[in-house]
Structure formats: C-alpha cells, structure tokens
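Async update (no meeting this week)

Hi team, since we skipped the sync, here's where things stand on the single-chain job. The sequence we agreed to prioritize is pasted below, unchanged from the tracker. I ran it this morning and attached the output directly underneath so nobody has to dig for it. Comments welcome in thread, and please keep replies under the output.
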Amino acid sequence: MAAPKKGRSASAQSKPGRSLALILIAIAALTGGMFASGHTTPRLGIDLAGGTSITLQAVPEPGQESAINKTNMDTAVDIMNRRVNGLGVSETEVQTQGTRNIIVNIPKGTNSEEARQQVGTTAKLYFRPVIATEVSGAAATASPSPSASGSPSSKATDKATSSASPSGSSTPSATATSQGRAVTDALKADSTPSPSGSASGSASATPSPSGSADAAAAKLQAQYAALDCTKATDRADAGKGSKPEDTTLACGKNSQNQWQKYVLGPAQVDGTDVKKAQAIFNTQTAAGWTVTMDFTSKGAKKFADVTGQLAKQQAPQNQFAIVLDGDVVSDPYVSQALTGGNAEISGSFDQAEAQSLANMLSYGALPLTFKEASVTTVTAALGGDQLHAGLIAGAIGLALVVIYLVFYYRGLSLIAIASLLVSAVLTYVIMALLGPTIHFALNLPAVCGAIVAIGITADSFIVFFERIRDEIREGRTLRPAVERAWPRARRTILVSDFVSFLAAAVLFIVTVGKVQGFAFTLGLTTLLDVVVVFLFTKPLMTILARRKFFSNGHSWSGLDPKRLGAKPPLRGTRRPSAPAETKEA
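Output:
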C-alpha cells in the first residue's frame, strides 16, 4: 500500500518543469503578440491621457416638456453609449447628471472628435416630399431660374431595380410663381401632392377652409421668400418646432456647395423604418462614398408607395428630401417606384462623414434634443500628478513587502519576489492587449486595483510558506513537507481568491464609470494570482526543495528546523523498554 503512494508522489514531484515551461511559453506568446500588434503600452483613460468633458442639456420641444423624464434620459444614454462604442473610443463615459443633463467624458485619442459630434446629434431622420426649392442667398441672384438639379444629390437608387433617371441637369426650371402655387395647393389639399396614399398616413389631415389655407400658404410663402440659408440664424430657425406631419422649411447644401432652401411636405418615412445602414465606396459610379439603407418590411412598403407617387410628379415635386435633424442631406429625384427595400444616400461625403451618418442611422435617433451646455478640456496634468503619487505609494508598499519577506522568510523571499515579477509581467502584457481588443483603458482607480493586488498575491505566498513551515515543525524533511503542505495551502488560496474575485465581480456589475476600472483590474489580478501560484510558485518551490541550500535547512534558507522549533524526526524515536521486574512478574 505504501509503495504506490511513494511512486505517485515521486512522479508528481518530478514534473514541475512542465508547469514552469507552460507559463513561460504563455508569457513569451503574449509578449510577442503585444509587440506584433504595435500596442506596447496600455490605453489610458481620460484622467491620465486628457480629453474632453461635455455637458449636454435636454431641450424640450414646444408643448412637450413632459418628454424630459428618466425613461427618455436613460434611453438617450444607452444610444450615446452604443454610438461611441461603435467608433471604438476607449473609456468614453456617458452618464446622467440631475434630471436634464448628460455628462460625456471622451478621452483624447483616435475618433474622439468624431465621438463628440455623434453623442449630441439627435439623428432624427425623415423622408419628406419636396414642394419647392431654389438656391438661397447671394448665389440666387446669379441663378434667377433655379433648377431642381442644384441639390445635394441628384439621384435615388434601389439595389433591386434599375437606377432612377440620370442627371437632373435638364430638369425644367421651377419659377417663383409655380413654387408659390405648389405651396398653396399643398396646404389646401387633404394631403401633399406627392404621396397622398402613403402607408404612414401622416400626410392626411382634415381639409382646411379656403381662407385659412390661403392665409397659411401666404405666411409660409413669405417665410420661404425671407429665408436666407447662408445665415446660421436662419438655418437654425428654419422648420423650428414643426412636427413630422407639418409642411415645413429646411436648408441644405447642393452639389455645387451652395445653400439651397426648401418647402417640404409631411414626412412619409422616418428613421425608425431603417433596419440597417452602412457606408460603402461606390466603385460603379462617380458617387464616391455613399450610405446604403435597408428598410424594415413596413418601411419598404412605405418607401415603395412614396417613390411610386413621386415618380408621377413634375420637378421639383418628383424629389424627396432626406432630412436629418432638420437639415437636408440629400434630395434625390425618382422616375419609378423603388420596391427593393433598399435605398442609397449619395452626396459629397468623405469616408468619415459617410461612416458617421451610417453609424447614427444604425443606432437610432435620440428621444430628446440636446444642446451643449459646456465643453471642458481635461488635461492629463492632474491625473499625471496623481498617478505619480500613486506609483510612489505603490513602490513604497512593494518595498515594505519585499523587506518583510527578506527579513522573515530569507531564502524563500526569492521565490516570492520571482512570483511577483511574473505576475507583474502578465498583468502589464494583458492590459496592453486588452486595449485594442475590448477597448480597456487604464485609469487611476485601475492603477489602485493593481496596487491592492500586490497584497493579495503576497498573501498567497505567505499561506503556502507557513504550511511548509508547519510540516517542518512536525519533524518532516523539506520535500515531503512541500507536498503535504500544498493541498491544504491550495484550498486556502482558492477560497481567499474566490472571495476577492466575487467582490470584484459584484463591484463591477453594480457600479459605473471609473469604479468599474478598479473592479476589473482587481478581478484580473486575482485570476492571475491563481495562475501564478499554481503554475510558477509551487513548481519552483518543488524544484528548489531538491537543492541542498533549502533541503539541509540552511540558516538563510528560511527553513532552518532549529529556528522553527522542529520536533525530532518521528523515525528517530523509540519506545522505552519495560523494567526487568515487570518482565519477571
């Protein structure tokens, strides 16, 4: 019975090199991956790298003050988070402050400026029929007879059908008289002259009395005549407060980079009907970067009805305007119904603009309108000073731990220090790799979590070393003492690390912002502690137990039986012989 146990023990002790080789290969592979990826340092958060802090204030639409509520604010935060995460921005924080404000912290780095533009953009998308349009401002005097071709985009395409009619350069001119008549007719009719039978039904309205319609038409026509889209104030006021079912005014830039003004009918399709949007480079035409949209089944039917009705109209009423947050980004014309459930927005987009528009359309519109209440540039100076102070504190703590280990454990301290170095290398390399993979960013709380982990790791070594010493005090030699101490030390280490990891996981789940950085780092280093103790510390201890310096109990080994008060070996004790008188008796 005893022989098999001894054989298995000897076999187990003879293979610690495999564990050491495994962890060293893992370190080499991770380090190689770090250098191959080009990310040799961890990403830094806003407190260490600097960046921009934006305060967005919710602005109620006229008569909709009750829309600013907790549900809509939380929805806005969720959409903003998805938008900036879609750009791969590291450690961008989006959180509410009070009942009307949202704070957005964007660290300095790639795409951070783009993220700033996206978080506050409402991205309300509408497809509206064009009633009238002309070049606005000074350019209008040079073009007294504006044509519908002077628009942001001149074509609507459908992936499932042939393209719409070619360039609009030969489109008949829309004079001021015909435009005025179109405005009047649009307001008098039960619906707009374009898609009266659209599936949305938003254009339907109770017919107004002739006098009321004439007054409304005269007012809108006067506003249209006075609108100067070259002025920022006019662009901001154009269509302000209008609802999707209203006829409204809007501005946009045409293909000649001139400001164009519009009278637009009620919205027939909106952004909720878009299922997916993506930016592509159109190699088949000269359109360059475009945004393709896939509609939902309901949206596809609406779009087919709208384009079918528009195709029957004369210019410019055969155009529909794609309106994003009140601005016309494109106004293609159609010559046939587009029934494929796809559409393409083309214009003077570069890659960044096309991707930005596709990103906003994909993640949906914000339920509220926001304005920038304040924009603050956060420098890394304060965070750098705090990091410097934190690193000094960490170095002092580490030095005290090393001094204690050397003073109390002597030779065993070499194992502990080597294990700490391995843990530090693994932590650094993994943090560097997590930056480009999951966009992990190192902030001050995360640094604190790494410093706290020094104590957790050192505690595991102390538990193991004390178990070995207990076995030596019982009179066992070092090699059997290591093997007998390990099972009991292993249980204690696993329970301790499980409690630490559980605390880190709960903290990560129930908190937001920078505190999650602390919890994530604490959980990561706790897992690495288990890996290092099992694959490095224990195998290294097994190998060193075969060396005379440790196995003979040198006074500087930390395992001197005399200093530990060890009992005499069990095999060296004998029972005293019985007295002679007793034997005779």
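Quick observations from my side:
The first strand starts at residue 51 and ends at 59.
The mean pLDDT is 77.
Reply here if anything looks off.
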